[in-house]
Amino acid sequence: MRNLILALIAAIMVACSTAHESIDTLALNAAHGDGGAADRLVLAMGDRDRERSLDAYRSVVSMGDPMIPFLYGGLGSDDQDLFEACAAALGSIGSTDSLPELKAALDRKGMRRYAVAWALGEIGDLSVVPLLLRSLATDDVVLRKTAVRALVRLGPSVGPRVLRVLLERSDDVKARRAAIRVLGEIRESAAVPLLTEVEGVNLDAAVWALGRIGDPRALQPLLEDLSDDTWSVRRQAAQALGNLEDAGAVPALRLTLDDPEPVVREWAARSLETLTGKQVLYRNEDGRMVQPYNLYH
Questions:
Q1: Are residues 113 and 131 in the same domain?
Q2: What's the pLDDT at 293?
Q3: Alpha-carbon gap, residue 50 to 113, rounded angstroms
Q4: What does the alpha-carbon distance between residue 67 and residue 80 come to, in Å, rounded to a whole number?
Q5: Is the domain of 196 the same as that of 218?
Q6: pLDDT tens digit sequence for 138-190
Q7: Average of pLDDT values for 106-123?
Q8: DSSP secondary structure letter of residue 292
Q9: Which of 97, 123, 149 is the C-terminal boundary of a domain?
Q10: For residue 117, what are the contacts with CB-CB under 8 A and spacing of at least 6?
């Protein structure tokens, strides 16, 4: 019992002394090869004192590669704040040496894995693409969105592999929607034929992606989408047609100025202004004829 009490007292004393160590002192000692100081500096990134944790994070990142081995312990921690900070720091440092540890951390369900996905995107090594594609199907909404961002960050070269998600996961609504987002963001023109065939709950996302890509092959499908039963699809189609910059959309957009939904009418007017170079009025929700809202008017 006496030994247990002494151990507890020692632990409390260490914790107290660590809390009173300044981040600058820890960083200086760590930079001079003090492994204990490096460990305590990493632990400080999970401190509940937000200012202290941010100072520790900045110090760790600025020290770069020498701190990488000390960050691995945080990836195995059950402390969410420390886990997230260590993953983010590894991403900010950007060394491929940390990829094996980060890949393993992506499997730690219940932790803030979105920080790991973000880090993988920042490091920019294409070997992580399969892991990020797998994350597109997760029920973790934040992880899924961060995986999308990471894939976009990796650039157009991921396009063919993201396309396979549309081809091979026909029943996975979440994964398909996330893949559509990536394909639109990277402007993957090879996706146009598949995107024009999308139906159901992901149709609005596909219409958005077609507008983002801006391929002329999308003109006719988008014109047809102006008559869809779902107002959000019609709105996306009206916006997308403006992005295509094809004057062939003008007659259909003029008809869309009579759409029952004000937001659809507004986007039709906005796209008509883009295509014609002239001011176009639409009937707003109050029944007044107005010009589409523009921050710079």
A1: no
A2: 85
A3: 21
A4: 20
A5: no
A6: 999 999 999 999 999 999 999 999 999 999 887 899 999 999 999 999 999 99
A7: 97
A8: P
A9: 123
A10: 106, 132, 135, 143, 146, 147, 149, 150
Indicate whether this model's pTM tops 0.85: yes
As a whole number of angstroms, the distance between CA 122 and CA 111 comes to 19
Residue 10 domain-assigned? no
129 located within any domain? yes
Interhelix angle 23-31/50-63, nearest 10 degrees? 20
Instruction: Give residue 155's region: left, alpha or beta (phi > 0; psi -120 to 50).
Output: left
Q: Is residue 288 part of a domain?
A: yes
Q: Find where tokens 């023109």 sit.
A: 189
- Same domain, yes or no, for 115 and 149? no
Q: Of 173, 191, 213, which closes a domain?
A: 213
Percent of the chain with pLDDT over 90: 89
**Three-class DSSP category at 198:** coil
- The amino acid occupying position 141 is V
Q: Is 188 helix (H, G, I), strand (E, B) or coil?
A: coil
Inform me whether the pLDDT recorded for 231 exceeds 60: yes
CB 114 within 8 A of CB 146: yes
**Please, which residues bridge with residue 282 across strands?**
290
- Confidence (pLDDT) at 1: 53
Amino acid letter for position 123: I
Host domain of residue 112: 34-123
Alpha-carbon dihedral angle through residues 228, 233, 235, 240, given to the nearest 10 degrees: -110
* Cα 178 from Cα 138, distance rounded (Å): 10
Length of the chain in terms of residues written: 297
d(CA 33, CA 222): 62
CATH number of the domain within which 283 lies? 1.25.10.10
- 15 pLDDT more than 70: no
pLDDT digits (tens, 9 = 90+) for 194-206: 999 999 999 999 9
